[in-house]
């Protein structure tokens, strides 16, 4: 019976003279970008590709924690300031 593999018993095939692949190393800047994208703190504004096929990705975001007021403002969307003030005044009159 013929034995398979490289004979070192680890099953990874590294006994053939090749180096074990190194773990990828992320810089702090790269890690910040990855975390920013995954947490939705950063969004892609544009992707630019020039004639030499150089890629430039423009990101924008804030690391400031969103407050309750920020969340409400985002939900209100297209409501004008006048409509908002009218609603607040009507609500205060009823009390």
What can you tell me about this protein's structure?
- The chain is an alpha+beta fold.
- It contains three helices and two strands.
- It has helices spanning 28-38, 68-76, 81-94, and strands at residues 42-49, 55-61.
- A two-stranded antiparallel sheet has the order 1-2.
- The chain is elongated.
- It starts with 27 loop residues before the first helix and ends with a helix.
- The mean pLDDT is 80.
- Tell me about the biggest sheet? 2 strands, antiparallel
Q: Outline, from the CA principal axes?
A: elongated
Secondary-structure element pattern, one letter each: HEEHH
Bin the strand percentage.
15-25%
Which consecutive residue ranges, at least 5 long each, have pLDDT under 50?
none
Strand order of the largest sheet: 1-2
Bin the helical content.
25-40%
Overall residue-averaged pLDDT value: 80
How many beta strands in the DSSP annotation? 2
Span of the ends, CA to CA:
90 Å
**Number of helices, counting only DSSP H or I runs of 4 residues or more:** 3
* Rounded Rg: 28 Å
Give me the oligomer status: single chain
The chain-level structural class is alpha+beta
